[in-house]
UniProtKB/TrEMBL annotation:
Matching InterPro entries: Arm-DNA-bind_5
Domain of life: Bacteria
Domain Arm DNA-binding: 11-97
Stored Pfam families: Arm-DNA-bind_5
Protein name (record): Arm DNA-binding domain-containing protein
């Protein structure tokens, strides 16, 4: 019998305490209701972040670069999830993170 799994990816920011105008960018992966955060090691201006779109607004080189990083990260996380399923391994947030980070 096959059980269904839920898997989702979202992106969010966390403001820096000493520089509240800047924030760190994170990806949150959720598998069957259990979530885990992965830092993308990028600092972005808070005023350019669009939470509903999970992207930076504007068309500056910085915005395009960060948005590309978000898209690439999302694609790589989905690829990692599919790879674990295909290999018949247990899919958890920890196994996805471990394989994603290498």
């Amino acid at each position: 019998m096959r059980t269904s799994q839920t898997f989702s990816i979202s992106f969010f920011i966390r403001k820096k305490k000493k520089q509240p105008e800047l924030a760190l960018l994170y990806a949150r992966i959720t598998v069957n209701g259990k979530s885990l955060e992965i830092s993308l090691k990028r600092t972005i201006p808070v005023d350019k972040w669009n939470q509903s779109a999970s992207k930076l607004t504007g068309s500056s080189a910085e915005s395009r670069q960060i948005n590309k990083k978000i898209d690439e990260t999302k694609a790589q996380l989905y690829k990692t999830y599919d790879s674990l399923l295909k290999d018949g391994l247990l899919v958890t947030t920890e196994t996805i993170k471990a394989r994603f980070l290498g």
